[in-house]
Design brief:
homodimer; six-stranded mixed sheet; 11 helices; 2 domains; 33% helix; Ubiquitin-like (UB roll); globular; L-amino peptidase D-ALA esterase/amidase; five-stranded mixed sheet; alpha+beta
């Protein structure tokens, strides 16, 4: 994944430094500064054991008013500041204060993010030292450095950047994400930071954030273990020369929303493709479901089945495991005689058993690919949902068994 | 696990033979015959893709009347007769008919069970040949042979047998189970057959079956993949010299129920201990929950977390993974500041983070054991539930990736 063409976003400045929180000594401390007019929305992990920075970021977002927008993000990698109790909250607040003092804003105009090992206190002396260096480094062109500074066990940086035309006006979208396939949720785990210069109301931005997250970061799963630190922000700096997007019914809203969905889906899928130990990129499509809930229920049951995942690792078209996972997904009055299961374009299952047209050779050919689609047609309704996942390999066990040793 | 003292149960006869369904050529075909008075109750998989024999066994149990009890079980290993559509139902019916003809009963007085590979038709020629041989082999003393004949990838046979005293009367309980840690649900998977000579009504037997299954076979989990063929039967032959147990409030009921719970728990735990690839036997205890549902929600989330399981494999006291799993279990308004998590007797987590008394040495000492208890005290109510599981090892991936090759 190259960093060619990471377009700066007007009104966003990024600074990085090596705070030496990570043992490797590589850059691990990142600051994003926004112009006054910038509007920021965010989503956070649902984990009840959420980390101190998540708790504080949620609080600070609630304090936002028209005259008091979020002005900065501060992110460290190497330490998640999770499972750290009261000390963790104090440290997160202190981090925000240090940055606010540098930038001349209030501490609650800063959102903090941490990613790394759970259960160790933040090294505040290192953060105090790093802060002025990161601020001195602030520049609109530092997206590449920022995308690298937020990484933990990721093998590659994950970025997206595009300049689009919305009704004759030029709008830029640039973002980065981290997360090594969510196989290290105690390296707590998934972060996403997206910025655009679009002129858009807070309400419209929030609507787009909710739906885009739902169709991207909320549709990837490696092992079902959601982390204590997952968070994603979306900032619109209002600097583009365009009429404000203020209605969800406008053509501009629809164009911008589609572009943001593409951006978030790309950043989410790059996390799956970088899953350590992952040898396959697997799309689970559930079609003609009755509700979104049941579509996701089936898709996630198949995506998280260790038996399906080990079969994918072995490139084994073991359709019985897919069938059994669909069968146990808990969908009410599921009629197994009227559903179909496809591997790529190959029909695996119909009439409650192996399709008569199925051959092992055809299934094997699909399984030999790196990108694999499992399609389950429920024939119950009109809803379609897709989830992306990986296989389960020796390396998954190795990485997660040896992680702390 | 030795076969010493597998006490015969009056009114139960067992016969085995090698039908050559399994490639190994070992015994793979088992018949159990019951006296006329025997009462049989059973539970089956909830998987919507249940196998043909499960569908037929459920139908035949519905046809039971006082004058028309279940008279026999017929079990084959090596082929699950699952995902086999209409042909599968025809084959299961034909199997019951063949045995009914041999024993002089009706076909719907026979319950069929199959375990093995999914998606291949039963070799009916082999079953036809095997049937008279298995019947000729019927004897009250053949529990050992029966317990071996139902195995697939299991490393050891799993049996239980005890003679107990109920208010001065001697009652025998003997049973066997199979299932290689449920890590082979496409080897479809867990079966249990328990018999007793107790004199007991159908209603009382059903009550005990439901509660005992619920606290045993329904409390073990390896990878969350429930199979298409899971089934368990409990037969009471009424041959013991005792007053009939006909009230759930009687002392005899309580004694017999406790004995049956012990029997089923033992047979269930032996499946976990025989999980191929398993190096640990792990009890997840959730205490002071508000409801059974939330206790199981927490216990199963921890038990099925691949990150917790790989840490157990590595004997790594990685408490952050347990904390994160509890946090994402989805229990409503869970207060993470007032719960405790213990590893054995060692307090890991309190006040939302690592316990101040915790030391890595103390955690490591517990993790080095083979039998490990993770105890989560929710401090919300009075319910306690326990789930048993295993770790996740290289061998789990190896066995399941290479299974068909």
């Amino acid at each position: 994944m190259s960093h060619i063409n990471l377009h700066p976003v007007a009104g966003v400045y990024l600074g990085t430094t090596a705070a030496k929180i990570k043992k490797s000594g590589t850059e691990d401390f990142v600051v994003l500064q926004f112009v006054e007019e910038a509007i920021t929305v965010a989503t956070f992990t649902q984990n009840a054991f959420c980390a101190a920075p998540v708790t504080l970021a949620k609080q600070n977002l609630l304090a936002v008013t028209h005259q008091h927008n979020i002005r900065a993000l501060v992110i460290n990698s190497g330490n998640a500041n999770a499972g750290t109790g009261k000390q963790g909250m104090d440290d997160a607040m202190q981090t925000c204060s240090l940055l606010a003092d540098e930038l001349g804003c209030d501490a609650n105009q800063v959102l903090p993010f941490s990613t790394g090992v759970i259960g160790e206190n933040l090294p505040m002396d290192k953060i105090e030292m790093a802060m002025p260096m990161a601020v001195a480094n602030l520049a609109a062109t530092h997206w590449k450095e920022a995308s690298e500074g937020i990484l933990t066990t990721d093998l590659v940086a994950k970025t997206y950047s595009k300049v689009i035309d919305i009704e004759g006006h030029t709008v830029t979208l640039t973002g980065c994400s981290k997360g090594s396939g969510m196989i290290h949720p105690n390296m707590a785990t998934m972060l996403g930071f997206v910025a655009t210069d679009a002129k858009i109301t807070q309400a419209c931005l929030q609507t787009i954030m909710t739906s885009a997250i739902n169709q991207s970061f909320n549709r990837i799963t490696v092992d079902g273990d959601t982390s204590t630190n997952d968070a994603c922000t979306l900032t619109a700096t209002q600097q583009a020369d365009m009429p404000v997007i203020d209605s969800v019914d406008s053509a501009a809203f629809k164009q911008f929303s589609a572009a943001m969905h593409e951006c978030m889906t790309d950043l989410a899928q790059k996390i799956i493709r970088d899953g350590e130990g992952a040898t396959k990129f697997v799309s689970i499509e559930v079609e003609s479901a009755h509700t979104v809930e049941e579509a996701l229920q089936v898709a996630n049951t198949v995506a998280l089945s260790p038996l399906v995942k080990t079969a994918l690792f072995a490139s084994d078209p073991n359709w019985g495991r897919i069938l059994a996972a669909v069968g146990r997904s808990g969908v009410e009055s599921l009629n197994v005689d009227t559903l179909q299961i496809y591997l790529g374009d190959v029909l695996l299952v119909e009439n409650g058993g192996r399709a008569s047209s199925y051959t092992e050779e055809a299934g094997q050919a699909v399984m030999n690919e790196t990108d694999i689609t499992i399609r389950i047609v429920l024939n119950r309704g009109k809803v379609k949902e897709t989830v992306w996942t990986t296989d389960f390999s020796y390396d998954y066990v190795k990485i997660n068994a040896e992680y702390r040793s």
